[in-house]
Amino acid sequence: MINTNLENVVYNNETHRLNLSNIGIDELLSNLDRPLSVILQITRNCHFNCEFCSEKDQMPDPSLDELSLYESHLKDVPRIFLSGGEPLTRNDFKEIVDIFSKKHILGLPTNAVASEKNIKVIKDNHISVNVGLDGPRAITSRVRGDYDFIMKGVREFIKNDIPFSLTAVVLRSTLDSILYTCQMADALGAKKMKFVLPIPKGNALNLDKCEYITEEEALSVCDRIAEAKEKFDWKTVFTFSIWNENTNGYSILVYPNGKTYAWPALDYQDKVLLLGDLHTDTIEEIWERYPYKFNHINKYLGNGVKII
User: Fold this and answer.
1) Partners of 306 in the beta sheet?
2) Cα→Cα distances 3→15, 36, 133, 231, Å
């Protein structure tokens, strides 16, 4: 395995990306015996009800003892996203961070629940924050949740010098605000603005079919963003995840119950492919069964998603 303590696998706070120091994909495929990152759902609870949420089925939160077991089976995975639901709804978030922070680079997808306690935990542990923000007030409040609540949290991150990225789910009904959203990201100082397409699962199954744009349309949006970025000198890095053969199964996702999946597995009805269970399986065993290694690694080499 490539030792995660070496400089060739580090996290760049400026770009909000893993820096693989020009390691080639063939070398990584030959040497890696575990993934570069894992998404771990520490809860399914959430104070929002996003139109596009793919993870609506409720299940009990894992206990701290279970999470400690998961961590022991995730040994040497460079980066772990403490995800949800909304991970900051857990009152024991600090204790969870204590379990993972010593051996992993931590990421936090959040709706910006920026309490004073959470801010201190995030800053003290150098956790990279990724906030869901889908555009101006009317759009974000319609498709995700309370825009002003989110922006209050973002302002707290800015005030406390916590680097953050933004994520927007792109629907046909939000296309006309894309460039405005890019300007918001640049004005707020987001390191990265990630655009993703919805996955037909959970709440997203209730979206009108016309809300799903085509790959061709998504690429056209990327061209518009690139042109505007050059014209307006935006400093934020923009990425666009389009679900196709290059992104199929590119993430490893752990549910709160320990079941571990390839995600999004586009050829499967529920868009996930079961790989194992962190209660009993190590990440090396799960990696052996994982059929999307190329796409996973390619993502972190910057080739699986469109980067602008």
Assistant:
1) 240
2) 22, 11, 35, 41
CB 35 within 8 A of CB 290: yes
- The residue written with tokens 């399914």 in the block is 44
Work out the pLDDT band at 36, boundaries 50, 70, 90: very high
Strand partners, 131: 110, 166
Amino acid at 269: Q
CA angle 275, 277, 280 (to 5 degrees): 130
- 226-238 pLDDT per residue, tens: 999 999 999 999 9
DSSP calls for 186-200? HHHT-SEEEEE---S
Q: Which residue has the higher pLDDT, 2 or 131?
A: 131
Give the pLDDT confidence score for residue 21 in this predicted structure. Answer: 61
Which of the listed CATH numbers 3.40.640.10, 2.30.40.10, 3.20.20.70, 3.30.70.2740 matches domain 35-307? Answer: 3.20.20.70
What one-character-per-residue DSSP string does 201-267 give?
A: SGGGGGS-GGGS--HHHHHHHHHHHHHHHHHHT--SEEEEE--STTTTT-EEEE-TTSEEEEET-TT
pTM, two decimals, is: 0.93
